[in-house]
Amino acid sequence: MKKTASLTLIAIALISCTNNTQPPQITATPQATETIPISENPSWNVYAPDPNHIWNRIFRQFYRRTTADGKEYGLGELDPLLWFDTTYLLNGVSHQRAIRVLEEFLTTQAETLIDDPLKRAMFQRDLWAVFDWLAFQSDPYPSQRQALETRLAQIIKRVALTKEQILSLPDNYALAVQSNAFPCNYQADNPKAAFLPYDLLEPDSAWVPVGREGGPIAMAHTSEFPFFGRSVFLVFVRSPNGRTATLDFIRSLNTDPHPVLNIGSDVALVRQMLLIDDQGNPVLSSLVETIQIRHFNPEQIFHEFELDRTRLLNGYPDAFNLKTDLFMLFFSQGDMFEGAHGPELRATIPDVCKACHLNIPTVLDGGNIQSILSYSRANFPLPDNQRPILFATTRMDEAQTVINWKLKHHTWKSLKTLWNQ
To answer: What is the pLDDT averaged over residues 374-398?
Structure first.
């Protein structure tokens, strides 16, 4: 099993450290040949109204995890509940069902059942995540992995959009801001209230994305399980004194031995979706998957938002959920559905955030600046403990940096080999 030393270090570090808009109707016609009984759990009608539509059955097969008492998880999760030691999908009935439903999709040309570019994009994105989980390691169950990877790669290819279609996908962040589901600024009279900044992704706002010489800015998120470069992680900084002050602060990270992070500043980590176009090239889409915001008052106030797949695909503009807990995937703790523990071990926010982002409210410079891990590299050192050289960048430039990294990763090489067969 391929487990990098950096992953082990990350795991150790963690231990220590109202909108009522009616959605439009979906017009896709279901075509199912195998019916799976639907329990009292929520219906998995994500991609089409009928839970037994083959697109829904594939999504359910790979994203649903079930506890011993029959309770289902995964429907509302952005990433599949799969860990390093997961055997689900790799042996027994779950593997047989996975192969069968993928074969059905391929033999019936089920990619023709849904034309909506947004649904095709999300479907590709969901299957790509499973493919990378399989391809990252070859043991155990190498033949079972290869059987799944081969079929997944062909479906990923079949549902691919053109580059123009990818670039025309909706800006779900802008839609969420316009919906007024959350305040668009920090609320001084209610400091614990979560907010989605209206100008976070505007190119000339006080929110400035930060880049790093030598590779992606959020290297740990980019390179480690479960992401492996399928998303662009963007680090934004905002000074309360405006864009010029933000740019001055970013420059000071390289020149000042004790840079000062002003009270009222913000740091955001934005995860933006990459997709594969019909020519087999990664393309940055406009779709935002997660937003993590930290406001310094001077203590850190944490909020995290996650894309709600079902609301997005059903046409709701406010398609983000405010996260209060999460399954630990990034810092893998082992499969929570196969071990002695269970889903009750989900981590709470902001406690999990504070494990790595140091929270020292009485120190206004050295303490808080250490919480910006792109600068301090606390618990996440660069090779040879290099000091990061940081600079103001753009979303597109950072995306290209991540794409260049992904193109060299063995998960991408595995996908391209199968894509071309």
So the answer is: 87
Nearest to 37 by CA among 49, 48, 51: 51
Name 333's Cβ contacts closer than 8 Å, sequence gap at least 6.
Answer: 11, 83, 345
Closest CA to 139 of 180, 68, 90: 90
CA-CA distance, 173 to 199, in Å (whole number)? 10
Q: What is the separation of C-alpha 222 from the centre of its chain, rounded to a whole number of angstroms?
A: 10
- Give the residue among 27, 32, 26, 25 at the shortest CA–CA distance from 53: 32
Alpha-carbon span 236 to 257, nearest angstrom: 21
Contact assessment for residue 84 and residue 78, using Cβ atoms and an 8 Å cutoff: no
Residue 230 host element (H or E)? none
Give this prediction's pTM.
Answer: 0.87
pLDDT tens by residue, 137-196: 888 999 999 999 999 999 999 999 999 999 999 999 999 999 999 999 999 899 889 999
Between strands 325-326 and 266-276, the pairing is unpaired
Burial class of residue 96, CB neighbours in 10 A (0-12, 13-18, 19+): exposed
Token pair, residue 45, equals 């009608």
| Residue 221: count of CB within 10 angstroms of its CB | 20
**Distance (Å, rounded) from C-alpha 198 to C-alpha 176?**
9
**How far is Cα of residue 22 from the mean position of the Cα atoms in its chain?**
27
